[in-house]
C-alpha cells in the first residue's frame, strides 16, 4: 500500500517524462513553430542552428514566418527574412505572410513585408488580396498603407467581390470612404454607385442598390451611374442598373442621355442594350452649352466642367458619325434612326461625317440614302463642308453619290478644282461652320 502510493507518482512521472522527451525529439518541428508563434527569437534561432528547416510548416502549410506575422512579431519576421525565409511563401490556401498580417491587422509587419518586397497584390486560392483581407476586417490603417503602396482595389475575388464590395457589405464605413477617396486620388468624393458603374462592379452596385441607393443618383455634373457605365461600355452593370429602375433616358442638364454617351464613344453593345430597353433613338442634346466628353480623364468627365459651345440638337446618330463609329452608326440605322435627322442648325449626320472626313461613315450614310444635298441653316451642303475641310476623298465620294457640284460654285470654284484632283487651297469666306464637331475624341482610361 505504502509502496504503491509512493511509487505511483514516480512511475507516472517517468512515463510522462519519457513520452514528452521522445515527443520533443521526434518533432522539433512543432516546437520550432511554437517558438515562432510565441515570438521567442532566441529559441527559434537555436532550432535553426540545430538544423531545423526554416520552411518547416504545419499541416495547414503555415511556416514560422506566417505564424510570426500573424502574431505581430516584427523582429522575428525580420530575423526570418534575413535568414532566407521566402517573403512570398504561401500556405495551402495560397496565403502569404502579407495576407496573414493584413487579415490580422498587423500594421508594422505589413509595412516590413512590403518593404522587403512582398507582392502587394498577391492573390490567394480564391483570389483574395491582402487589401481585400484588410478591408474585410476593417483594418483602416493597413488598408491605407496598402493603397499607398500600390495595392490594387480593382482586383476582385473569384466570386467577383472587390475590397469595396466587402467593406460595403460589412458596413465598414471608414474603409469604404478611404477606398472611394483613394479611387479618385483623394480629390473628389464620387458617389459610390458611379464608381461601381465605372468598374463594372456589379457586386458593389447590387449592394449599394440594396441599401436604398437611388439608381439615378447624380454626380455633381448631373450624370447618373448609367451615363458612366455607357461611357465605359460596361454592359453588365448597366443591365443591373436598368433592372433596378435606372431611367434609360435620364437627361443630364445638357440634354445628354446615356445613349448619346454610348454612341459618342462607339460602345456598340451598350447602344444595343439601351435601344433594347427603350432608349430614345432621336433624343437631342439641348440648346445650351454642353459638357463634352473630350478630356483625358474620368474626373474631367464628371467634374471639370469643360464647357464647349457646340452645335445643339445632336442625336445619337450625329454623335456616332462624329466619332467614326461605323458599327454604332449601322446599329442606329438598323433601329430606324432617321438618316437625315437634323440639329438645330439643320446639320445632318452626313454633314458631320463630311466635316470630320470619316470616309466609311460617309459611305454608309450615303448607302442608306442620306441626302447628299441636304442644306444646313447657313446653306451649306456636306460637299461644302468637305471642301472647306479639304476632305478630298469624301468630296469625291459625295459627288459620286449625286452631290451637286453646282451648289458649291457659289462658294468657290476652287472646290470644284479640288474634286477634279487639282487641289488648290479651299479658303472660302463664309464664316459659320461646325468647327467644334470634330473635337478630338476622348481617350478616357
Ligand atoms: C520537419 O520538417 C522538415 C522540413 O520541413 C521535414 O523534412 C521533416 O520530415 C519534419 N520532421 C518531422 C518529425 O515531422
Ligand atoms: C488593377 O487590377 C485590374 C484588374 O485586375 C487591372 O486591370 C489593372 O490594370 C490593375 N491596375 C494596375 C495599376 O496595375
Ligand atoms: C458580364 O456578364 C456576362 C454574362 O452574364 C458574364 O459572362 C461576364 O463574365 C460578365 N463580365 C464581367 C466583367 O463581370
Automatic annotation (TrEMBL):
The keyword Kinase does not apply. Keywords: ANK repeat, Signal. Coiled coil: none annotated. Residues 1-26 form the signal peptide. SUPFAM superfamilies: Ankyrin repeat (SSF48403). Pfam families: Ank, Ank_2. GO terms for biological process: protein localization to plasma membrane. InterPro entries: Ankyrin_rpt (IPR002110), Ankyrin_rpt-contain_sf (IPR036770), E3_Ligase-Neurotoxin (IPR052391). GO terms for molecular function: cytoskeletal anchor activity; spectrin binding; transmembrane transporter binding. One of its GO terms (cellular component) is neuron projection. ANK repeats lie at residues 60-92, 93-125, 126-158, 159-182, 221-253, 254-286, 312-344, 345-377, 378-410. This is Uncharacterized protein. It comes from Acanthochromis polyacanthus (spiny chromis).
Amino acid at each position: 500500500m505504502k509502496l504503491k502510493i509512493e511509487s505511483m507518482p514516480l512511475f507516472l512521472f517517468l512515463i510522462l517524462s519519457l513520452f514528452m522527451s521522445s515527443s520533443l525529439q521526434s518533432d522539433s518541428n512543432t516546437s520550432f513553430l511554437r517558438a515562432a508563434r510565441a515570438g521567442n527569437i532566441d529559441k527559434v534561432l537555436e532550432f535553426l542552428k540545430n538544423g531545423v528547416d526554416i520552411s518547416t510548416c504545419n499541416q495547414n502549410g503555415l511556416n514560422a514566418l506566417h505564424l510570426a506575422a500573424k502574431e505581430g512579431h516584427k523582429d522575428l519576421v525580420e530575423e526570418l527574412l534575413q535568414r532566407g525565409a521566402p517573403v512570398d511563401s504561401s500556405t495551402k490556401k495560397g496565403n502569404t505572410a502579407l495576407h496573414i498580417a493584413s487579415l490580422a491587422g498587423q500594421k508594422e509587419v505589413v509595412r516590413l513585408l512590403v518593404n522587403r518586397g512582398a507582392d502587394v497584390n498577391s492573390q490567394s486560392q480564391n483570389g483574395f488580396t491582402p487589401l481585400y483581407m484588410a478591408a474585410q476586417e476593417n483594418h483602416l490603417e493597413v488598408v491605407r498603407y496598402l493603397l499607398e503602396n500600390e495595392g490594387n482595389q480593382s482586383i476582385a475575388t473569384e466570386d467577383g467581390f472587390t475590397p469595396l464590395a466587402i467593406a460595403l457589405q460589412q458596413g465598414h464605413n471608414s474603409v469604404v470612404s478611404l477606398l472611394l477617396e483613394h479611387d479618385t486620388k483623394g480629390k473628389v468624393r464620387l458617389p459610390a454607385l458611379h464608381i461601381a458603374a465605372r468598374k463594372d462592379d456589379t457586386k458593389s452596385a447590387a449592394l449599394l442598390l440594396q441599401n436604398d441607393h437611388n439608381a439615378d443618383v447624380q454626380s455633381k455634373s448631373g450624370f447618373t451611374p448609367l451615363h458612366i457605365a455607357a461611357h465605359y461600355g460596361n454592359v453588365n452593370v448597366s443591365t443591373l442598373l436598368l433592372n433596378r429602375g435606372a431611367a434609360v433616358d435620364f437627361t443630364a442638364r445638357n440634354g445628354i442621355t446615356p445613349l448619346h454617351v454610348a454612341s459618342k464613344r462607339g460602345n456598340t453593345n451598350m447602344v444595343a442594350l439601351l435601344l433594347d430597353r427603350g432608349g430614345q433613338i432621336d433624343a437631342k442634346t439641348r440648346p445650351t452649352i454642353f459638357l463634352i466628353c473630350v478630356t483625358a480623364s474620368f474626373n474631367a468627365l464628371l467634374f471639370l466642367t469643360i464647357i464647349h459651345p457646340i452645335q445643339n440638337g445632336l442625336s445619337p446618330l450625329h454623335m456616332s458619325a462624329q466619332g467614326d463609329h461605323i458599327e454604332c452608326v449601322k446599329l442606329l440605322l438598323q433601329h430606324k434612326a432617321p438618316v437625315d435627322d437634323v440639329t438645330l442648325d439643320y446639320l445632318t449626320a452626313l454633314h458631320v461625317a463630311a466635316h470630320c472626313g470619316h470616309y466609311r461613315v460617309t459611305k454608309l450614310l450615303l448607302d442608306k440614302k442620306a441626302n447628299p444635298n441636304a442644306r444646313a441653316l447657313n446653306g451649306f451642303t456636306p460637299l461644302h463642308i468637305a471642301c472647306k475641310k479639304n476632305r478630298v476623298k469624301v468630296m469625291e465620294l459625295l459627288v459620286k453619290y449625286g452631290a451637286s457640284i453646282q451648289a458649291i460654285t457659289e462658294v468657290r470654284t476652287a472646290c470644284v478644282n479640288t474634286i477634279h484632283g487639282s487641289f488648290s487651297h479651299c479658303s472660302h469666306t463664309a464664316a459659320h461652320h461646325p468647327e467644334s464637331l470634330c473635337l478630338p475624341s476622348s481617350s478616357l482610361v
